[in-house]
Amino acid sequence: SPPLIPGYLPLIGNSHQLIGDRKYLWKRSQKTGVICREMGGVAAFLVGSYSYYVISDPDDCLMVSNTCLDKPYAYNFSKRLMGNGLITSEASLWKIHRKLLNPAFSQQMLTAFLHEINIQARSLVSQLSSKVGEEPFDVRPHFVKFTLSTVSRTSLGLSAEDQTIINNEYAETVEELFAVFCSRFQKVWLHLTWFYNMSDLKQKEDQLLKTLREIMDYVINKRKTELKVKEESEITYDPNSGKFKPALDHLLNLAEEQDAFTDDEIREHLDTIVAASYDTTSSALTYTLILLGSHLEVQQRIVDELQEVLKNRDVDVSKDDLPKLVYLEAVIKESLRLYSVVPFIARKIDTHVKLKNYTLQPGTTCMILMHSIHRDTKLWGADADLFKPERWLDPETLPTHPNSFVPFGFGKRHCIGKLYTMFVMKTALAHILQRFSVSGNIDNVVTEYDIVLKPVLGHHITLSSRI
Ligand code: HEM
C-alpha cells in the first residue's frame, strides 16, 4: 500500500485537512501535490475509514485512467446537472456516447466554426475598447461572456438574437452550483444522502438546477421546432462555407434516426458541454492574459508573430493561420502548464490496479494530480515553476515523457473539447493582442478551487491601445 499523507488522526483520518474555504482548498491541493511527489508519486489519505489515493507519477496516472474508466462517487454530486453527459456517465454508456459525439468535435467541424469564433472575438475586442486607459479591471467576466456566446452559437446553434439566452444568469448559476458541489465534498457528513437531503445546501441545489433546466429545455425545444418547420432543403450544413452543424443538431438527428439519446440525455450532454467549456476556457484565457501583462517581452514576441502571419490584415484568423502561430501556441501551453485550470481528476478504483511500486485496492478513489505533474522538476527541470514559453519551441528542452503535459486529462476519457479550446484561445488572443497592449502582475494573483481554478484577487489588468 502507498504511504499515508502525514497528519491523519484516529477515526477521522485526514478529513480535518479538507476543511477551509476554496482558497485554502487550492493551497491544500498544492501541498498534497508536493508531498505526493516527495513520497515517490503515490500516496494515500483517509476520510474517516475511506481511502483516497493521490498520484502524480505520469506512468501510474495513465495506468489508472485507462484501467478504471468509471468516475468516483464525488462526481455523482454533479450528476443531477450533468447526468449521462460524458463527464459523469458510467463507462458502459460513455463508450457508446463518446463515439457518437466525437464527430461533433472533429477538426473539420471546428474549422467550420472558425468564422463564428472570429465574430465573437471581434465583439469581445469591441467591449474591451471601453476599458482602454481606464483603471485596472477584471477581464474574466468579459471572457465568460465571450466563451458562452461562442459555445451558444457553435454547440447550441443559437442565432445572434437568441445567444443571450445562455447569458450571465446561466453562468452565475453554474458557478454557484459548482460551489455547492465543492462545499458538499468538503463537509464529509453531507456525503450521506439522507443527511444531505435535509440540508439547506440541497435546497439551494434544487433551486439552481431548476433555473438551469428551464433555460436548457427552452433552447432544445426552440431548436426542435425550428428544425421541424424548416424544409429539409433549408437545413444545409456545409463546413467549407462555414455552415456548421451545431452539436445540438447532431444530438437531435441521432435521437431521431437511431434513438440514441433520450430528451433528458440531450439536455445533460448540452449542460455538460456548456459547463465544461466556458468556465475552463475563460479561466485559461484570464491566466494567459495576466501572464502576458507580466512578461512584456513575451507579449511583444506574439505581436511580432501576429504581424508576420496576419500582415496587419483586419481579416479572420483562418485555418491556415492557426498552425503558423507557433509562439502564441507555446504561450498558451505554458500558461496551461503553470495554471492547470482543471488541476486534478479522479477515478473509481474498481479492481486491483498494479502500479510501478504499489497496488491500489478496489473500493477506493484515486485522484490524479495533473497540476503536480506540470511542476515536477524531475520532468520539467529546475525552472519548472518559471513561465518560459521558449521551452516549447525546442524538443530538446521539453520532457521526454509523453505524459508530462496533461491539462486535458489522461487516456481514453480525455477532454473532447481540447482542439476547440485551442482554436478559441488562439483566435481570441490574436484579436486582443493586435488591438491592445496589456499589463498586469501574475505574482499578485490569488487563486481558488471550485472544480476549475479561478483567480479571485490581485488579477486586474489594464489595457492601452496599440493602434
Ligand atoms: C482550457 C480548457 C479546458 C480544459 C483545461 C479541460 C480539461 C478537461 C479535463 C481534465 C477533462 C477530463 C475530466 C475527467 O477525466 O474527469 C475534460 C473532459 C471533458 N471536457 Fe474539457 N477542458 C477544457 C475545455 C473544454 C471544452 C471547450 C469543452 C467542450 C466544447 C470540453 C468538454 C469536455 C467534455 C465533454 C469532457 C468529458 C470527456 C469524456 O469523458 O469523454 N472541455 N476536460
H and E order: HEEHHHHHHHHHHHHHEEEEHHHEEEE
Mean pLDDT: 92
Number of distinct beta strands: 10
Give the number of domains: 1
Cofactors and ligands: protoporphyrin IX containing FE
CATH topology: Cytochrome p450
CATH class descriptor name: Mainly Alpha
> What's the multimeric state?
single chain
Number of helical elements: 17
Low-confidence blocks of residues:
none
Shape: globular
Q: Biggest sheet: strands side by side, in what order?
A: 1-2-6-3
Architecture overview:
The N and C termini lie far apart (61 Å). The protein is an alpha+beta fold and 467 residues long. Strands 1-2-6-3 form a 4-stranded mixed β-sheet, with helices on both faces. It has a two-stranded antiparallel ribbon with strand order 4-5. A two-stranded antiparallel sheet has the order 7-10. Strand 4 (353-354) and strand 5 form a beta hairpin. It has one domain (15-465): Cytochrome P450 (Cytochrome p450). The mean pLDDT is 92. It has helices at 22-38, 58-67, 73-76, 79-82, 91-101, 107-129, 140-154, 168-186, 193-197, 200-229, 247-258, 263-294, 296-310, 326-338, 370-374, 377-380, 418-435, and strands at residues 42-47, 50-55, 344-349, 353-354, 359-360, 364-369, 436-439, 446-450, 452-457, 462-465. The protein contains 17 helices and 10 strands. The longest helix has 32 residues, at 263-294. It is 51% helix and 10% strand. Residues 86-87, 98, 272-273, 276-277, 280-281, 284, 341-342, 345, 407-409, 413, 415-417, 420-421 line the site of protoporphyrin IX containing FE (HEM).
